[in-house]
């Protein structure tokens, strides 16, 4: 049986997973897969669902696997949503900075060939 804190955590994880899967990752990954990662990242009560959603989505953006093309298409709208949450006071600046710099590094057009080539080299070694 879940205690009061357990129910709050479960609700936060479910809401964050829904936000990450639908709003940030544009359903590139299943809700259940996203929820599994969100539950691993849920740390404390002060963490808002938006913070957890951004952290969860960031993990998927950094580790796209075979979903790279889908995430390439959704990363711009995800960046805008994370910025909106920051402007509304739902995210700390450190998380916004980490999200933006990670996506810029991985998905910027000037970096695409470099990123894919280095990933392929790692896979073959």
Q: Structural class, from secondary structure content?
A: mainly alpha
Low-pLDDT stretches: none
Radius of gyration: 15 Å
Tell me the major beta sheet. none
Strand content: under 5%
Q: Percent of residues in helical segments?
A: over 70%
Shape: globular
Number of strands: 0
Detailed description of the structure:
This protein has 125 residues and is mainly alpha-helical. It has 6 helices and no strands. The protein has helices at residues 4-24, 31-41, 49-62, 68-87, 93-107, 112-124. The protein is globular. The chain starts with a helix and ends with a helix.
Compact description:
This protein is mostly helical. Helices cover 75% and strands 0% of the residues.
Topology:
Blueprint: H1 4-24, H2 31-41, H3 49-62, H4 68-87, H5 93-107, H6 112-124
Helix pairs in contact: 1-2, 1-3, 2-3, 3-5, 4-5
Features:
125 residues; mainly alpha; 6 helices; globular
């Amino acid at each position: 049986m879940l205690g009061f804190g357990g129910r709050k955590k479960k609700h936060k994880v479910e809401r964050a997973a829904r936000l990450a899967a639908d709003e940030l990752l544009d359903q590139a990954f299943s809700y259940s897969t996203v929820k599994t990662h969100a539950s691993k990242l849920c740390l404390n009560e002060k963490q808002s669902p938006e913070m957890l959603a951004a952290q969860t989505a960031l993990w998927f953006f950094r580790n796209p696997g075979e979903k790279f093309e889908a995430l390439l298409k959704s990363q711009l709208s995800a960046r805008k949503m994370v910025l909106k949450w920051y402007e509304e006071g739902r995210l700390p600046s450190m998380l916004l900075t980490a999200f933006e710099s990670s996506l810029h590094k991985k998905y910027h057009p000037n970096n695409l060939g470099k990123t894919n080539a280095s990933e392929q080299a790692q896979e073959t070694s």
